[in-house]
Design goal:
The structure holds two protein chains of two kinds.
Chain A: E1 2-4, H1 5-19, E2 23-27, H2 43-47, E3 52-54, H3 59-71, E4 75-79, H4 90-97, H5 100-103, E5 113-118, H6 133-137, E6 143-145, H7 150-162, E7 167-172, E8 179-181, E9 195-198, E10 203-207, H8 211-223, E11 229-233, E12 236-238, H9 242-252, E13 255-262, H10 267-278, E14 288-292, H11 301-307, H12 311-319
Parallel strand pairs in A: 2-3, 2-4, 4-5, 5-7, 6-7, 10-11, 10-13, 13-14
Antiparallel strand pairs in A: 1-8, 6-12, 9-11
Helix pairs in contact in A: 1-7, 3-4, 8-12, 9-10
Chain B: H1 5-30, H2 45-52, E1 60-62, H3 68-73, H4 78-85, H5 119-132, E2 139-144, H6 151-162, E3 167-173, E4 176-177, E5 180-181, H7 182-185, E6 202-206, H8 210-225, E7 231-236, H9 254-261, H10 265-275, H11 281-303
Parallel strand pairs in B: 1-2, 2-3, 3-7, 6-7
Antiparallel strand pairs in B: 4-5
Classes of the chains: A alpha/beta, B alpha/beta.
Chain lengths: 322, 320
Amino acid sequence: MKMTYAEAMRDGLRVEMKRDPNVYLAGEDVGPFGGCFGQVAGLYQEFGPGRIVDTPISETAIVGHAVGAAAAGLRPVVEIMFMDFMGVCMDEILNQAAKMRYMFGGKAKLPMVIRTPCGGGLGAAAQHSQCLEALFTHIPGIKVVMPAEPADAKGLMAAAIRDDNPVIYVEHKMLLGVQGEVPEGEFVVPIGQAAVKRPGSDVTIVAWSGMVPKAAAAAETLAGEEISAEVIDLRTLTPLDKDCILKSVGKTGRLVIVHEANLTGGFGGEIAAIVADEGFDLLNAPIKRVTAPDTPVPFATVLEKAYLPSEEKIVRAVKELF
Amino acid sequence: MEITKEKLLGFYKTMVTIRKFEEKACELFAAGKLPGFVHLYIGEEAVATGVCANLTDKDFITSTHRGHGHLIAKGGKLDLMMAELFGKATGYCKGKGGSMHIADVDLGILGANGIVGAGQPIATGAAFACKYKKSDAVAVCFHGDGASNRGTFHESLNMAAIFKLPVVFVCENNMYGISISQKYHMNVSDISDRAAAYGIPGVTVDGNDVVAVYEAAAEAIQRARKGDGPSLIECKTWRQKGHFEGDPQSYKKPEEQAEWLQKDPIPRLEKKLLELKYATKADLDKIQGETAQKIEAAVKFAQNSPDPSPEDVLTDVLAG
């Protein structure tokens, strides 16, 4: 059935909460308010305050309590209202959730999900717009998923909840209202599998989250100019579906990586390194990255537009490879 | 509250076990046989012992850098702990955690912790799980005076208070946060006063008196089990050793150290046991001797255990 990305994610959460009484949602304004962008509207009315838990503005305790609750047998889903606020609970993510299993010699399970919206486009400026996924992909012991369309928003939510590891589930603010066809009932998209969003033969465009629709639009434009672009939606950053990328580059011989995050130290660098290392002979041209510049996210509409990667910038980058 | 002979002798055995484990760890570290850091609990044995005597395997604890005592008091196995200190494959964490990270989730021990104040939200979450599952289990968070200055302390006590979670925050005020005296690092003398900020009970007890600790913890833990919410217990005690082994402790005044050594919790309990005629000097010597043998056996187990295989560096990162 047709659903928005936000509705689909919520449906995934709802189905899992019905399926498993140990699943609950906690975070700021997730109760009657229904989430900052209305992502979880109605769940409080359906499940009540015992399972949809409004917390104080205490990101450290929100994520930290989830670590303890997960270690003690629950499956918490917690919301950090904006990805930018992840810094407030970084110890809980990088030293506690991510490390506990390894430090305990495999004797702990941390089935917890941190949901958080990323991305610019709302004029929300530098503390409410960032894409910080690269920070988290650098930390062993956690998984990072970033769905780009409604069906994946639902299926990856289910997979994240069922996973016995900490999973950071990043939802893009500009995708929340996008509609798409979504399967009803239980539906799981496996973590760690990329999707070929559009097949092509001349160039591979790897994107994720908010950049997937832009990459798809660029591919459409390029098709009109006789360039056949294959668009890959990574869906999951860690663990990464390397094979999907290498297979595509093997077919096209060219690679453009698109991400909304800043250039330096971005996850695009990691993909480029993998392809250079394991697929150098497949390449007929240098690898290109289309990303935001190395600045904070600006406020003014004209500046934010200049900051964000666009369909035009992707088209331009692709053409430079021919 | 009646403290039976059996209970008091049980306290004594636990405290002596912790002391002898720590003395052995000290000796082994000085001899260069243990990698990493070792943070000893010597002098603070009455706190872990008095608190954990109120807990069962279903209850949870979170611990600190100085975790050996908490783990032993909660039922941790000496041989597996010692093997972990040596970094052996047979250790609690297969040699991946070491002294600062020993855990036994099956016993409700959610780990010693290398980050000061990190156990506070984790214990809050374990208590959330106890309440969510409608069990009567509780969580106890051991933390130090230094940790009570961290944001985790405020966020956790506040969250636990508003959710009425079954958690007891046990502040072991050993008077120093690493090298900094409590007199310098906070503007209150009793950390338990901070409970008022969260609308929960806070008490200060003599942390070198195991019976006082036991009784205060019993009250707080019963309150938590009944669903009446969290408490903060401050146990004033003394870190007889440095923050870590090898710390020259130049920041401590000799007279302060001498004064506190007079208040050592173990001779103090011995005196009580003898006065009450619950034990003779020979009985106590026997306990000491048997405990020393157990520690030696644990060391032997550890030394005879294999190292982890290098391939194990890659395992246990993710479940499933």
